[in-house]
Write a structure and sequence with these properties.
The chain has one domain: Metallo-beta-lactamase, Chain A (4-Layer Sandwich), CATH 3.60.15.10. 18% of the residues lie in helices and 29% in strands. The protein has helices at 86-93, 117-124, 158-163, 242-253, 273-286, 299-309, and strands spanning 8-9, 11-18, 32-33, 40-42, 50-52, 62-69, 72-78, 103-105, 129-133, 141-143, 151-152, 166-170, 176-178, 183-185, 202-206, 209-212, 222-226, 230-235, 258-264, 290-294, 321-324. The strands form 4 sheets. An 8-stranded mixed sheet has the order 3-21-2-6-7-8-9-12. Strands 1, 13, 14, 17, 18, 19 and 20 form a 7-stranded mixed sheet that branches. Helix 4 (242-253) packs parallel to helix 5 and helix 5 (273-286) runs parallel beside helix 6. The radius of gyration is 19 Å and the shape is globular. The two termini are 29 Å apart.
Length: 325
């Protein structure tokens, strides 16, 4: 494979717009700065008749990603959460505007990463923002679990997005760049580990029938190369497997040093414990400076990661801003 290393940049910031958890008591540590919200909302039951706006958490993921190099900044929205207004409301509280996004990148087509685009569209106001996706983003999917009725997963409507002012950009499964080679979208990730098996029970409707779709091939990540520090890898759910994603980023870029891994590691509670152990073991070989598991990283996986990687672990929370420079 030809190496397509992203240009090194001075700085990358990642602000968490949505995650499964919010905790206003967490302290600043390493690259993370916790939010201090200033916007007020009216209240009928307090003496001052107002309270500070509170950030919302939900089962979803979204991040505001900004790169800076030579005093030039570019920002994108990476995923959009699950509720129609969750991310848009959190952005207002954090004093961020979707209109400042030069692109929207979706990690994959699952509803807990996409449906929040509803409120974002209202804020964009027909801004004609490009939305970068893998071709299989539109797959019609369902979950089939033993003893339960199949559950259809909600999916976005291409026509509605275009009508709302989104410019749909269906990239090939191959890697692509944003902003003069400074931000890499991995495209489809090589599956090389023996234990990262994807999402069992998922099916896709193709050729007039439901077929197994455990791999979720549209799963993709973002990669930036911080000058003098190494790679920062940002995932949505990490359906491709967090170890696969990191190894693929190293393979694409030719850069061995990983500075930080942030996002969903797809290690939910109830997963085979052997998969968690193997993942945690192989993360040790990746040797990242910082680990920020989020969203679909279950409690058991987080506890195991803390045991093995306590010095590099950072607890994530909605509103946290990570600055890598």
């Amino acid at each position: 494979m030809i190496k397509i290393s992203p240009s090194t940049i001075d700085q990358l910031s990642v602000t968490i717009l949505m995650d499964n958890h919010v905790n206003a008591l967490l302290e600043n540590r390493g690259p993370v700065k916790r939010p201090s919200t200033t916007l007020n909302v009216t209240s009928k039951v307090t003496e001052g008749k107002f309270v500070k706006s509170q950030l919302r958490a939900e089962h979803g993921f979204s991040a505001w990603v900004t790169i800076q190099d030579k005093n030039i900044e570019h920002s994108i929205l990476f995923d959009a959460g699950v509720s129609p207004t969750g991310v848009s409301e959190n952005m207002r509280i954090l004093e961020l505007s979707p209109k400042d996004a030069e692109a929207i990148v979706f990690s994959h087509g699952h509803f807990d990463h996409t449906l929040g685009i509803d409120g974002i569209l209202e804020d964009l106001g027909g801004n004609n923002t490009p939305m970068i996706i893998h071709p299989e983003f539109w797959n019609r999917r369902r979950i089939v679990l033993p003893g339960k009725e199949p559950r259809i997963l909600p999916s976005l409507d291409k026509f509605a997005l275009r009508k709302g002012g989104i410019e749909v950009v269906e990239e090939s499964p191959f890697p692509s760049f944003l902003f003069n080679n400074s931000l890499l979208v991995t495209g489809e990730v090589d599956r090389t580990t023996s234990y990262e098996m994807g999402m069992q029970g998922q099916e896709v409707f193709k050729e007039d029938s439901w077929q197994p779709d455990s791999l979720t091939l549209d799963d993709q990540a973002l990669v930036a190369n911080i000058r003098g520090k190494g790679l920062v890898i940002i995932t949505g759910c990490g359906h491709a497997g967090i170890v696969n994603i990191c190894n693929y980023a190293k393979k694409l870029t030719g850069e061995n040093k990983i500075h930080a891994i942030i996002g969903g590691f797809h290690l939910p509670d109830g997963l085979d414990p052997a998969i968690i152990r193997n993942t945690v073991r192989d993360i040790k070989f990746l040797n990242p400076d910082w680990l920020v598991p989020a969203h679909c990283t279950g409690q058991q996986a987080v506890l195991t990661l803390i045991e093995e990687h306590g010095a590099s672990m950072i607890q994530n929370s909605v509103g946290s801003r990570y600055l890598f420079n």
